């Protein structure tokens, strides 16, 4: 299985103290990219790490070096082992417990911020086990408040997080005031959620039990407030910087903090910094961005000169070739961090900050972008779901679907995988004729930093979305790495259809789509002629639609020129789905039966035979 869905949880340590538990965890470790830790009293397993002494003495070493710990022993024993090591949910590793038979997966600690809840769901999917998640948000179908903004790169601000979370858990009305950042999360809430968005009308008194601010503003909450409040800060603020050569990191940091305090802005909302190219080697700036891990953008004087700003300076223009550094850099940085057509807004004009205790000066300006900086490397997962029945989806594909931030696909396919959806996912469906828009939307969100799963039936690389997404990426000048692309194979329609009727594909075969939306009919006809003449077993995709009815008739005519009218034919509609229908017939009679876009037709070759309603194409083995 691919390791990409499990990367956020690594490094992972799995711990077993019995041979049975070790054998349960060993294959799981290969799937997760985890290291199995065993006491020296057990028979060693491949690639396991052996420890001596007691687990109680060994555990602190793993605790400080791993993001996730998975135990395969009694839950009570795990509780006693980890109790002395627990500090706070923001720093403790995710703790999971799996029973020795692999029937249950329990999220024990750090379910939200540590990711134990999500990993529990992923592992349970792979093991076909029951996930045990006891948090209130999970039972309500809501993403936990303290991780609500993580997919979008938001940062937590001050507030009573426990109080607001309790109000949500009890179904109380919680007011949400969102002034910045993506609202995608709002579109996928359960119908019975208790959030109230915005402000009520004057004649509409509402008793709120909590409030969530989503904003770049830093608010101070009074301890005597009537109800608890919290604040999330989307990273939408881009700081433009100008400074005298040699200005220290400390003065730059002080200047930025002073301006943010003056304008009641949250430094947690900083997306990054921008300045003129000649300041790209400024030591103080480089030290500051290294310390804060901010993106740092530099612009030529020519680019900055083209930006309209409220406070141009002729002095600055004479010095560096542009009338503005700080204001123009802020606007440029806010506009170029993502492919948005929106124009950023300069919310703080340039402020010049000096210090009485050291030389140097810093000019600060702040622009707000429409779209937040996520600080994440986007991933684009091209997922084949097979014929549509959940049991026919590979564990890797099912895991990718559960882990993705966004799922994009045709509505029929999205309905088939609904049981795999998890709380908080963004689900976007597109009609069957909007494949290109699907691909473009997926690329847009992945370039932004989200993990996007694009769904295809069958295999995504066979008449699916895989090729189209890669084509669209090529148009954007994709570097092959950002976003990171991964393909999850699926059982194809021809494989599924063949499996339902026997072994008709035992010899050379081909597949041909009769849809002429993307391929001229003249080309399709040549391929049919060649396949029929060469005696290939042939799988026909997209054989007939409501408006395209003649192609399957022509295909029959072509094959009748080269094959017996008694050649076995399988007509398989919706293989493995609830409305599956299978017909075994012959080439001359195939058009007597219903055929549509959900049908795959398999035309046997000259040696294919029907034996007791099983199609067999001999491979040619000698008796």
Q: Which runs of at least 5 residues are low in confidence (pLDDT < 50)?
A: none
**Which structural class is indicated by helix and strand composition?**
alpha/beta
Supply the number of helical segments. 18
Percent of residues in helices: 25-40%
User: Major β-sheet, in short?
Assistant: 7 strands, mixed
Q: How many strand units?
A: 30
What is the distance, rounded to the nearest whole angstrom, between the alpha carbons of the first and last residues? 39 Å
On the 0 to 100 scale, the average pLDDT is 92
Indicate the topology.
Layout (H helix, E strand, L loop, with lengths): L11 E5 L2 H14 L2 E5 L9 E3 L3 H9 L4 E5 L2 H8 L11 E5 L5 E6 L6 H12 L2 E3 L3 H5 L14 E5 L1 H9 L4 E5 L16 E3 L12 E5 L14 E5 L3 E7 L5 H14 L7 E7 L6 H10 L3 E4 L1 H5 L8 H7 L5 H11 L8 E10 L6 E8 L10 E6 L10 H9 L2 E5 H6 L9 E5 L4 H14 L2 E6 L9 H10 L8 E5 L4 H9 E2 L5 E5 L7 H13 L3 E5 L9 H12 L5 E6 L7 E6 L12 E5 L5 E3 L2 E3 L7
Parallel strand pairs: 1-2, 1-4, 2-3, 4-5, 6-7, 9-10, 9-11, 11-12, 13-14, 14-15, 18-21, 18-22, 19-20, 19-21, 23-30, 24-25
Antiparallel strand pairs: 5-6, 8-12, 13-17, 16-17, 25-28, 26-27, 26-28, 29-30
């Amino acid at each position: 299985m691919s390791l990409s869905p499990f990367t956020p949880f690594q490094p992972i340590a799995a711990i077993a103290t019995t041979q049975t538990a070790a054998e349960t965890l060993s294959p799981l470790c290969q799937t997760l990219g985890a290291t199995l830790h065993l006491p020296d009293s057990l028979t060693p397993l491949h690639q396991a790490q052996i420890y001596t002494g007691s687990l109680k003495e060994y555990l602190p070493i793993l605790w400080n070096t791993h993001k996730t710990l998975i135990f395969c022993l009694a839950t009570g024993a795990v509780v006693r082992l980890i109790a002395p090591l627990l500090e706070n949910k923001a720093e403790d590793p995710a703790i999971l417990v799996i029973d020795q038979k692999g029937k249950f997966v329990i999220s024990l600690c750090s379910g939200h911020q540590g990711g134990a809840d999500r990993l529990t769901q992923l592992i349970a999917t792979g093991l076909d086990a029951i996930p045990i998640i006891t948090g209130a948000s999970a039972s309500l179908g809501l993403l936990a408040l303290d991780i609500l903004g993580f997919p979008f790169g938001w940062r937590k601000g001050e507030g009573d997080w426990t109080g607001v979370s309790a109000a949500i858990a009890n179904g109380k009305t919680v007011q949400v005031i969102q002034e910045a950042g993506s609202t995608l999360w709002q579109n996928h809430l359960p119908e019975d959620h208790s959030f109230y968005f915005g402000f009520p009308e004057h004649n509409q008194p509402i008793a709120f039990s909590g409030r969530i601010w989503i904003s770049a503003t830093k608010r101070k909450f009074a301890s005597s407030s009537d109800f608890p409040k919290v604040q999330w800060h989307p990273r939408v603020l881009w700081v433009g910087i100008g400074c005298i050569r040699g200005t220290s990191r400390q003065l730059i940091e002080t200047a930025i903090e002073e301006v943010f305090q003056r304008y009641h802005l949250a430094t947690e909302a900083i997306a990054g910094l921008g300045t003129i190219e000649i300041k790209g080697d400024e030591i103080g700036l480089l030290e500051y961005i290294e310390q804060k891990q901010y993106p740092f953008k530099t612009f030529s004087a020519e680019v900055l000169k083209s930006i309209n700003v409220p406070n141009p300076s002729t002095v600055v223009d004479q010095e560096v070739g542009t009338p503005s550094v700080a204001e123009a850099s802020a606007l440029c940085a806010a506009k170029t961090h993502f492919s948005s057509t929106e124009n950023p807004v300069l919310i703080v004009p340039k402020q010049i900050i000096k210090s009485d205790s050291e030389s140097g000066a810093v000019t600060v300006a702040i622009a707000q972008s429409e779209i937040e900086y996520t600080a994440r490397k986007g991933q684009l997962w091209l997922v084949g779901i097979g014929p549509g029945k959940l049991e026919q989806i590979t564990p890797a594909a099912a895991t990718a679907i559960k882990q993705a931030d966004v799922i994009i696909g045709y509505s029929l396919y999205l309905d088939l995988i609904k049981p795999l959806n998890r709380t908080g996912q963004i689900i976007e469906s597109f009609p069957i004729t909007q494949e290109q828009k699907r691909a473009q939307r997926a690329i847009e969100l992945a370039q932004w930093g989200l993990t996007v799963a694009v769904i295809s039936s069958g295999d995504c690389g066979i008449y699916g979305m895989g090729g189209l997404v890669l084509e669209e990426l090529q148009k954007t000048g994709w570097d092959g790495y950002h976003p990171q692309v991964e393909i999850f194979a699926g059982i194809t329609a021809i494989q599924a259809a063949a499996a339902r009727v026997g072994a008709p594909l035992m010899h050379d075969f081909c597949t041909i789509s009769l849809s002429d939306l993307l391929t001229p009919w003249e080309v399709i006809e040549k391929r049919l002629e060649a396949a029929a003449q060469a005696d290939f077993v042939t799988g026909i995709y997209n054989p007939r639609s409501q408006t395209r009815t003649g192609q399957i008739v022509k295909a029959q005519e072509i094959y009748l020129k080269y094959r017996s009218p008694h050649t076995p034919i399988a007509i398989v509609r919706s293989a493995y789905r609830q409305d599956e229908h299978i017909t075994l017939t012959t080439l001359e009679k195939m058009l007597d039966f219903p055929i549509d876009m959900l049908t795959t037709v398999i035309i046997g070759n000259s040696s294919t035979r029907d034996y007791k309603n099983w199609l067999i194409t001999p491979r040619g083995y000698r008796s």
